[in-house]
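Lab meeting, action items carried over

1. Structure of the two-component assembly. Owner: GW. Status: complete.
Input record:
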Amino acid sequence: MTDFTQLGVREIRDGVAAGDFSAREVAEGFNAAVEAASALNAFIVATPEKALEAADAVDAARAAGETLGSMAGVPIGMKDLFATDGVQTTAASHILEGFTPRYESTVSAKLWEAGCGMLGKLNLDQFAMGSSNETSYFGNVASPWRKEGSNAAMSPGGSSGGSSSAVAARIAPAATGTDTGGSIRQPAAFTGICGIKPTYGRCSRWGVVAFASSLDQAGPMARSVEDCAIMLGAMAGFDPKDATSLDAPVPDWFGNLDADMRGKKVGIPKEYRMDGTSQEILDSWERGKEWLRDAGAEIVDVSLPHTKYALPAYYIVAPAEASSNLARYDGVRYGLRDLPEGSGLQDMYAATRAEGFGDEVKRRVMLGTYVLSAGFYDAYYTQAMKVRTLVQRDFDAAFAQCDVILAPTTPTASFPLNSLNDDPLTMYLNDVFAVPASLAGLPAMSVPATVTGDGLPLGLQLVGKAMDEQGVLNAGLAIEQRAGFTVKPEKWW
Amino acid sequence: MTNYRIQGATGEWEVVIGLEVHAQVTSNAKLFSGASTAFGAEPNTQVSLVDAAMPGMLPVPNRECIRQAVRTGMAIEAQINKWSRFDRKNYFYADLPQGYQISQLYHPIVGEGSLTIDADEKAGIPEDKVIGIERIHVEQDAGKLMHDQHPTMSYVDLNRTGVALMEIVSKPDMTSPAEAGAYVRKLRSILRYVGSCDGNMEEGSMRADVNVSVRKVGDTELGTRTETKNVNSVRFVMQVIEFEANRQVDVLEEGGSIDQETRLFDPGTGTTRTMRSKEDAHDYRYFPDPDLLPLELEDDFIEECKASLPELPDAKRARYENELGLTPYNARELTAEVETFARFETLLAETANALGKDEKKVATPVANWALSVAPGVIKSLGDEADASHATAARQAAILKMQDAGEISGGQAKEIFEIVLKEGREPDEIADTEGLKQVSDTGAIEAAIDAIIAANGDKVEEYRGGKDKLFGFFVGQTMKAMQGKANPAVVNQILKGKLG
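Predicted assembly:
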């Protein structure tokens, strides 16, 4: 019997379409794998019945000769930031524990429409705030990877750590992620998989629990560039319910994949050569250049002079928006309510939010409240928004000289769980290479490049012009074809 | 300048008033959601997922609300900002599900404009006065807390949550309660002309925050102001100013100082009291709403807004005076309310058409009918009148008969009474009920001949130069004709026969 869990998106949908196997068999295979992988804690809730239901519908449609969707028969994991009708949606927070929406996010609805089934709701950093998946109310997620010679549980990255862990462990062929300041790319890099954050506005934010509205973007996480291209095609599209949605046609990214880089210029931003970046990361970056040159690209140096201000600006803008976005979790209408005996409205707010939010969420809500408060607004928020504009201009200038930018995804490989918990600033540095593209709203992807000496994956990041996901995917494909990244985490769970 | 002054122990004080009027935008759906805006529905039946601020819900601007705000701005001849932006005003309250109100602090959709309040000698407004308007911005309304449903808990009704409001901010240009009252009335009239707000203050569609400060006559610095929130009638606005101005003068004259604070009005006592002091003021942490792109108005949209504007009160009033030849009083009365001018213009068109005459020729009698005759009859009948019977066509038919001399003014009223009570047609009533003037010269001549024959002495006196006796003959003739003779015909024949 085939081990379906080794198959990717394209292989599954083509196999189902060809009748090589049924969607139900695939779903059963992954359901069993999910059940057996509880040690990873990648899922907050598993929904095997949902996966089977969708699979049966695909099998029936095929039997009836109907046209199948672009992901028909592919069971996926859904980050628990997407509202799913009738299935608990928590954002990994106690304050939403037990909350079951009666509506479906636009992105998840599109995926079901494309023929996907849901394996379950994936764990994440609470409200997508975190870079290690240690801020979830429902416990840490472990990466399937371990350092050679160590049994220490490693971080799968964050915030889409449930997604990265599940895809890398092959308990899901693909998963949704969301990226506010690197939350798709950093976990993808940590776990040796692919993940793309499209141009801001490509994927509807309707029904996605908001962290920082001007930055949040959904995207696919899978084990190959082509799987990402297929899945992004199913997720993207204009949504009149999201005022920031891009009203533009969705290109056939998968159909137009092309690893021939002749005539393309790849920019290398000198400012990404930062202190504290490991030699192994720098080496992998060099190899990335070689691979793209080998694919026919010309390598050019570019400058993104405001890079060093991007991370501080991000940690003002994102918490500012979050402090306001999270005000709705007040115990009045849904979710947790802590109403101490004899208390009033203000007491209820305080008790509910103190009890419901985790430490990192509280930290960011306080940060955001502070930077927006009277007397500090101009010094922080206004200044950060100016930096954001400058970062955007940096990219505009760089893209006058190149088609796509190549950089490391992260400054280090994955680290052990509980090793950075007491040091939020070091933790925030994880996103130093990811945040600039987020501030500029540009499409950016991480593809696996190599493994470190002690056996941990490293990713390379590609950043493209606005709306040019194709350029990013094509460069990613060129790297993927040459990197020959075939290592798998050894199963210990 | 107004002469409104407060006589204090230390001298004369003047009042400075600015108003922030919240006007609910007339639209079927809320500002950022598709939920209905109808008034009076069962609690929490007009609430969308967006209004309830469910996780992941997003606001999408309602084009109609934006359109109404732009049209309103045009009606006060204000600058229309082609680029504006929504900001979040953050605070926690149970009637505010999002934890913030979407408003426009930094870049409102409408900039500076003005309106003119009309001279009103009796109210102490000696001449027309222009009141500056600082801005109009659009924002979401909050929900409503109900404190009378449970002994220890408050209930929340979110029906009003997210309904679009225009906040219309005046400059501190008013100096008396009468001016403020006139401003609110004029603004209400403009909003109703434009159709952007129904102006219904009882239902809360329009409410005012009243900013009041006082200073010694002659001082140029503004005094510290207080803001009295959510005042919902013209009369109350005037009461608030009256009370606040006198209270502030008393405090200042006793050596105290005015706190910049938010106050509440108690309609029962006509007084205001502290709601929250400056120290308790919220830090609203305004910042641009990241769920919404800046609002950019296209030229076509602005043109369409402009083209859709009706004739506005000032222009209509001028036209009534200058083109229709109405008196200033009639012009003002007829243009004050949308319903009044609408009825007048319909009746005017109907009457002009029925008579085959130009509107200008019939405007004055139609105005008199519409303003005094018809309302008088309706009022005198009280409950007996069914106003739905009083169609423009029937009223025009009455005016036509009167114009042709077929009926007298008194007969017109009698016919209208029957119309109101029974819904019959005026021509038929005139015929059946004998409510017609006799213009038949034969009958009138016969009556006059008889009167001349019976009053030989008076005829002699008249012919001898006692002109005043002409009235006697008219009276006798009318009496003989039982009041139904056409006075013009009577006059003409009498003059001929008396020589």
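2. GW to write a short summary for the group page. Key points so far: The longest strand of chain A covers residues 444-451. Residues 5 and 493 of chain A are 15 Å apart (CA to CA).
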